[in-house]
Amino acid sequence: METKILSADDTDSTNAAVDEAVAILNEGGVVALPTETVYGLAADAMNADAVAQVFAIKERPSFDPLIVHVQGPEYLDEVAKDIPESVYELTDAFWPGALTFILPRTESVPDIVTAGLDTVAVRMSGNPVMKAVVEKLGRPVAAPSANRFGRISPTSAAAVEEELGGKIPLIINGGACHWGVESTIVRVEDPVPTHDKPKIRITVLRAGPVTVEDLKKLGRVRVENEPAASGETPEAPGRVESHYAPATPLRLLSSPKDFVPEEGKRYALMSFRGLDKDGYVPLHKWEHVEILSPGSGKLPEAAVRLFHVMRKLDALGVDEIIAEPVRDHLLGRAILERLKRAAIKG
Ligand code: TXA
Ligand code: MG
Fold first, then answer.
1. Closest-lying ligand to the alpha carbon of 67?
2. Per-residue pLDDT tens over the stretch 96-120
3. How far apart are CA 148 and CA 53, in angstroms?
4. Residues 179, 193: Cα–Cα separation, whole Å
5. What is the Cα–Cα distance from 226 to 341, expressed in whole angstroms?
6. Is the CB of 122 under 6 A from ligand 1?
7. Residues facing 200 on adjacent strands
């Protein structure tokens, strides 16, 4: 199949691209679309056959459920029921945006979308293309990241083409993604009214652009689903361990002291801030060095470049990619979670 790439860089080209995407979705086809996090592979969420194609094209196991994109908070009840009131406080604060809720599902959502679970993952994207497509289609859109299963999420149209070129009819090029890492996934519970200081209870299942620190302004936050150590196998839906993985083995260090090179092996370094004399760059005569946030060590810049840099290092054909850790706060949490999962061999 030939994969067409359409640009969406001004109003006219965006409108034309959106029309074409909606036409494909209406016919039960799939199309790759930009979002503010990563590119998604979209299908009409209410069409089980269309969603089946997403699983087939991604080679995604049927036990791993998809995220559904809706037009706004007022459309949540099309796919979810028994929605805690507190969810709307979070949508007020963070939608459209990179926040996904796990909610009890309605019967109208096909089983294949939720992998048979009684919950559904829902978000609203603020990306102009994704937003317009969902509005124009007038139905929820299922869209996981547009990569082959377990691989690095695409943050550009070129990366989608690398992953799925020849397998899908259309990619809409909306430029580089704003965040570069996938949405934060949460479960929300209403405050217990009898409690002294009633607070929304928020459980973070996947760290992302809406940070724990952001969420703490609205409620009590707990972080779950820390990646298990390599070798453990708690493989429930939504908890696939190895992920975001380059084909090249990747090792996440916790200290420069942990790096002991093996004779004859070729190593590439993924550094966070780069030229720190006590850091990782001077440790070794690296085959190649990529710095996520040159000079400034800024987390948003590092997050935006993370998957792009991982792809680039993976293409070098070195024996191992060595990753420098980042601080486990703000967006660093999301970066670290991806690095940990990339380092697990699946
Ligand atoms: O930013 C994003 O969320 C991107 C863009 C394209 O929207 N999408 C994305 O989808 O990252 P995906 O499929 O690559 O990751 C969705 C994650 C998976 O780990 C899946 O297992 C989990 O969400 N998930 C989906 N439904 C779930 C549910 N009902 N309960 C628990 N986890 C769920
Ligand atoms: Mg994914």
1. 1
2. 999 999 999 999 999 999 999 999 9
3. 13
4. 36
5. 10
6. no
7. 219
Report d(CA 113, CA 143) in Å as an integer.
10
Q: 340 with 242: CB under 8 angstroms?
A: no
Q: What is the reported pLDDT for 307?
A: 97
Domains, the chain, in order of start with CATH, read: 4-173 (3.90.870.10), 250-342 (3.40.50.11030)
Q: Are strands 67-69 and 141-142 parallel, antiparallel or unpaired?
A: antiparallel
Q: Write down the residue that tokens 């503010």 correspond to.
A: 36
Q: Which of 62, 182, 226 to mutate to test the pocket of ligand 1 (most atoms within 8 A of CB)?
A: 182
Q: Kindly report the protein residue whose alpha carbon is nearest to atom 6 of ligand 1.
A: 40
CA angle 135, 177, 65 (to 5 degrees): 65
For the CA of 144, the nearest ligand: 1
Ligand 1 neighbour 143 (Cβ under 6 A): yes
214-244 tens-digit pLDDT:
999 999 999 996 654 444 333 444 455 667 8
- Atom from ligand 1 closest to the CA of residue 153: 14
Tokens 């150590």 belong to 229
Q: How many CB atoms lie within 10 A of CB 208?
A: 25
Q: Find tokens 């420069």 and name the residue.
A: 256
